[in-house]
Write a structure and sequence with these properties.
With 524 residues, the chain is of the alpha/beta class. The chain is built from 18 helices and 19 strands.
């Protein structure tokens, strides 16, 4: 099978707080599991993200904490990186946008589109708070979404995903002082989306079969608009990347425009500033597939705005796969920093529970609908039959293969047929077109149950094959215990490759490795 090149992005987390389990259950864990599985299959994968430091939500957080924005960014960046580390989410490049190189790349793409006539200067009516002397957008304004009626910030509704103009909101208020805004005209730069309707229709027809149902329905709803809403590319603000045009002093580039060239800049950092490498991953003629992970509330930015920008520019490839997730609830309520209703990754993950918390998050992942996390349900996973089956397979299987002088690498036909069936399931769930954390985790639970029964009456060679299957299928989901099992059944220096049936036995009969493996199981 030919080696594939895959570029994986996860939405940059805003540095207005740590990552909570709701964040981690979505794009970050999903992208990490996908990356690990694809690499085991021999594919070349580049997994990138960055912090999102220019958001209006960062500024409102700084105001709430009465601290300089840079202090807030520094402190929460440390916590975010700790959460990712404890969750074993490993990116190839994770950068900050507060660099001259990042600013330059964002402004360069902006100017290229502007000088090609793709952007439009317009005077627009917008919300303005006289008390705060501030134009209201995104985090600065709160009201009821004109599409679904739910509480929403400006620009895009978190609930239904549709764009919203704060002027059309009911009961709009400034989030800083709670004043009712006035209407004020201001000049801004827009990116019209309507000229790309035909290209977006074609893109939808060619790719939506791979998307999750909610995302496909959402994209179709947008295409049914009589006129596709323009994307406001600049905002009046004193925080963000300055608009590099005379006459636009006091305006910054919208962070969601910034995010696209920001991903390219993160690639450049990884590539040591070699622009030919950036083009090799992002260019229109690139052989790489672009796979993007994000929450549903970010759908319009990735699927519509970024896609249209890439079409308009003409020199870059379009995404091959979008993998979105829905909201993850905590005790059946939304995770909320303001209400202190959250479980933070850096405080809840630890070296002992990391694999098992990853497994639980995968089993309850909000892929097609909202799902829920509770500490009690996680504790039930820790004491579940699945963990007992896991321990049985490793204990019985390792005991058998350690006692056998010679092991046949190929199992009996019955065990091979069983392993092949599960391999098909896992290959599907780890693929970009059918990726599913829940599908992979549920398949692993089934494998553990059946494997615990099979291994009790199997030969040493069959037990060895079952252990290899467990190692390969579980490693993307639970990398620590998977790697420890790998060091036993594929030898100490074995590579984490998708190789169910090696040419020879590579078992490492080292009881220290067994002790390390056993210590990874939760204590009942």
């Amino acid at each position: 099978m030919a080696i594939q090149r895959i570029l994986v992005t996860a939405t940059p987390p805003t540095t207005n707080g740590d990552l909570h389990l709701g964040h981690l259950s979505g794009p970050y864990l999903g992208a990490d599991v996908f990356t690990r599985a694809q690499r085991m299959m021999g594919n070349e994968v580049l997994f990138i993200s960055s912090t999102d430091d220019n958001q209006s939500y960062l500024m409102t957080k700084a105001m709430q904490e009465n601290r300089p924005p840079l202090d807030v960014i520094r402190d929460y960046s440390v916590k975010i990186k700790k959460s990712l580390q404890l969750a074993q989410i490993e990116m190839d490049s994770f950068t900050s946008p507060l660099t001259d190189a990042h600013i330059s790349r964002v402004q360069k793409l902006f100017l290229e589109l502007f000088h090609k006539g793709k952007l439009q200067v317009a005077e627009i009516a917008t919300c303005y708070c006289e008390t705060c002397a501030r134009f209201l957008f995104e985090a600065y304004v709160k009201g009821e979404c004109p599409t679904c009626g739910q509480s929403s910030g400006g620009q895009c509704c978190e609930e239904c995903g549709h764009p919203n103009d704060p002027l059309q909101m009911k009961n709009a208020r400034c989030t800083i002082c709670q004043s009712e805004p006035i209407v004020k005209n201001a000049e801004a730069i827009l990116f019209p989306i309507e000229p790309y309707r035909n290209e977006l229709e074609t893109y939808y027809k060619e790719n939506s079969y791979k998307w999750r149902p909610h995302l496909s329905k959402f994209f179709r709803e947008l295409l049914d608009y009589p006129v596709l809403p323009a994307f406001q590319v600049t905002n009046h603000s004193n925080w963000g990347i300055p608009v590099p045009l005379e006459g636009f002093e006091g305006q910054v580039i919208n962070v969601w425009f910034e995010m696209l060239p920001g991903h390219m800049e993160t690639t450049s950092v990884w590539a040591g500033r070699r622009e030919e490498e950036v083009d090799a991953w992002w260019g229109k003629e690139s052989s790489a597939s672009l796979v993007q992970f994000f929450g549903f509330d970010n759908s319009i930015y990735y699927t519509v705005y970024h896609t249209a920008i890439l079409i308009a520019h003409g020199n870059y490839q379009l995404a091959d796969a979008f993998i979105n997730n829905e909201f993850y609830l905590l005790d059946h309520l939304k995770f909320s920093t303001s209400r202190k209703h959250a479980i933070w990754g850096s405080e809840f993950f630890n070296e002992k529970n990391s694999d098992w918390l990853r497994l639980h998050l995968c089993l309850t992942a909000p892929e097609l609908s909202q799902t829920n996390f509770s500490v009690n349900e996680f504790n039930q996973t820790l004491t579940s039959d699945a963990i007992h089956h896991w321990k049985t397979i490793t204990k019985v299987g390792i005991s058998m293969i350690f006692q056998e002088a010679m092991l046949e690498p190929m199992p009996s036909s019955a065990i091979k047929q069983w392993l092949d069936a599960y391999e098909g399931l896992f290959l599907k769930h780890y693929s970009k077109d059918h990726f599913s954390l829940r599908g992979a985790a549920e398949s692993l639970i089934g494998f553990l149950k059946e494997g615990a029964d099979y291994i009790q009456n199997s030969s040493a060679s069959d037990a060895y094959a079952i252990l290899r299957g467990l190692c390969i299928f579980s490693l993307p989901l639970t990398p620590d215990i998977g790697s420890k099992l790998l060091s036993i059944v594929y030898s100490k220096d074995g590579a984490a490759s998708w190789d169910l049936y090696p040419q020879e036995s590579l078992c490492s009969k080292d009881y220290n490795l067994v002790a390390a493996l056993n210590s990874s199981f939760p204590e009942f």
